[in-house]
Model the fold of this input.
Amino acid sequence: MPAAGKPGRDCPRCPRLVAYREALRVKEPTWFNAPVPSFGSIDARLLVVGLAPGVQGANRTGRPFTGDYAGVLLYETLSLYGFANGKFDARIDDGLELIDCRITNAVRCVPPENKPLPVEINTCRDFLNPTIAEMKNLKAIVVLGHVAHNSVVSAFGAKKSQTPFKHAGKNMLGELALFSSYHCSRYNTNTGVLTTPMFRDVFEKVRRYLDEKQPSAL
Ligand code: URA
Done:
């Protein structure tokens, strides 16, 4: 029986994603091949929202951004700004800890070609909503890419026109600060859409915002 607000391993809600998952379970029986749970404490002040598990990354290992290229830059940057501690080794037993930070995905199951359909993003918001709601100390969200940005904006019932995506930009969702970033995918970094300094800029702003404006309740 799945915990309330969390997808079970055999979540049936998106037929296309279920079919892909079933095929992967046959092809790669040792992989995780299930909705990937959030990583980090619900007491954190920061939530990072990615797109969806990568097939050989989170879908294989069972931890967001673990095992594929996107995670290398993400975890390195989180460590740099004090949101992670330990050595990231792309395995879920690498001992890496998040500090005052939690990571989730807009879509919990791996989508073919990394592209969830709008209906899948909307359906999986039923799991994003409780993920946000259960974080009682939440002060800031970092969204990685347009899909995560739009899904979080929809989760708050805010207007997209009044909450535009801008890299390293900040919008307020009520009391909560929403920081937007281009996704740290290999494609974006290889094409120069996102550079390491651009990505650091986002987390530097988040660090400053939390340190100056939002004292820790812990
Ligand atoms: N891995 C994830 O968990 N999420 C992404 O958005 C990309 C890779």
Notes: The longest strand covers residues 176-181. The chain has one domain: 34-213. The beta strands are 39-40, 46-50, 84-85, 97-98, 101-105, 140-144, 170-173, 176-181. The helical segments are 15-27, 58-61, 69-80, 118-133, 146-155, 186-190, 196-213.
